[in-house]
């Protein structure tokens, strides 16, 4: 295939008009017009990248589900604290792990994986949509979705679920991040309830002293305490601009992408040699 086959090229004529080789043409009348054209090209690129990513991750999701099943039925064994070591050994995520807050819960992690469908065995998860403040949202055709899943030992004293999910939805129209959500957690009393209250207070304190998204700990990110604090502060100030919330979403997504691309598939690489 020729290098330029299937591509479109911008040609500027003497009169200042431009012609795009896909057959469309227009007139450059302002810098805003140039910016709009650039934004349109970026949106199309994001959608194409998401389509390719979704196909790629469907295969990875199947691999990670097989690994999860092998861990579940005992065909493979991990040492105690394996996932804690992998998370703390990661160059960036390790700085996010707060031993006092995260350690008690991290020791119960059995697996960390990613999938491109929402919910276990096809059942829908119960995501909290922070854009509409804890209102459940219907899945829309054309959206791209991926979930970061932390599987826990069901004997953990903190909550009733055996898995916690972070759900990321992207628009099929322009590839933008449409929503971020997490599993609604059934905290066990007294241990889990006290743990959640502390996470919530720490997240609120962090938000009160920061203008941009800052996560007080990895578990505050996973449980939704950090994004809840962003939403609460946003509402308390009666600030209707979406810039703060959008910044928090994208900061939250950065953590998920590091887990997805660098920890889930090959966690052993993150563990530092003794």
Automatic annotation (TrEMBL):
Pfam families: NAP. Transmembrane segments: none annotated. One of its GO terms (biological process) is nucleosome assembly. GO terms for cellular component: nucleus. It comes from the Eukaryota. Belongs to the nucleosome assembly protein (NAP) family. This is Uncharacterized protein.
């Amino acid at each position: 295939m020729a290098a330029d086959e299937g591509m479109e090229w911008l040609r500027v004529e003497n009169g200042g008009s431009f012609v795009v080789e896909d057959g469309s043409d227009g007139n450059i009348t302002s810098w805003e017009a140039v910016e709009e054209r650039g934004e349109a090209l970026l949106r199309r690129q994001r959608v194409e990248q998401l389509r390719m990513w979704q196909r790629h991750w469907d295969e990875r999701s199947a691999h990670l589900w097989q690994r999860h099943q092998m861990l579940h039925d005992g065909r493979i064994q991990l040492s105690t604290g394996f996932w804690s070591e992998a998370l703390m050994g990661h160059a960036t995520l390790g700085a996010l792990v707060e031993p006092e807050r995260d350690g008690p819960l991290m020791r119960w992690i059995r697996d960390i994986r990613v999938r491109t469908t929402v919910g276990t065995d096809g059942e829908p998860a119960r995501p909290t949509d922070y854009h509409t403040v804890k209102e459940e949202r219907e899945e829309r055709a054309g959206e791209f979705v991926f979930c970061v899943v932390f599987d826990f030992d069901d004997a953990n004293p903190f909550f009733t679920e055996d898995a916690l999910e972070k759900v990321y939805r992207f628009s099929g129209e322009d590839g933008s991040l449409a929503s971020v959500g997490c599993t609604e957690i059934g905290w066990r009393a007294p241990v889990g309830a006290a743990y959640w209250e502390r996470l919530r207070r720490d997240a609120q304190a962090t938000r009160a002293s920061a203008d941009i998204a800052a996560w007080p700990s990895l578990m505050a990110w996973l449980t939704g305490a950090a994004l809840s604090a962003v939403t609460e502060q946003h509402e308390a100030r009666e600030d209707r601009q979406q810039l703060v919330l959008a910044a928090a979403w994208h900061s939250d997504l950065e953590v998920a992408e590091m887990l997805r691309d660098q920890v889930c598939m090959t966690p052993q690489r993150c563990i530092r040699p003794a």
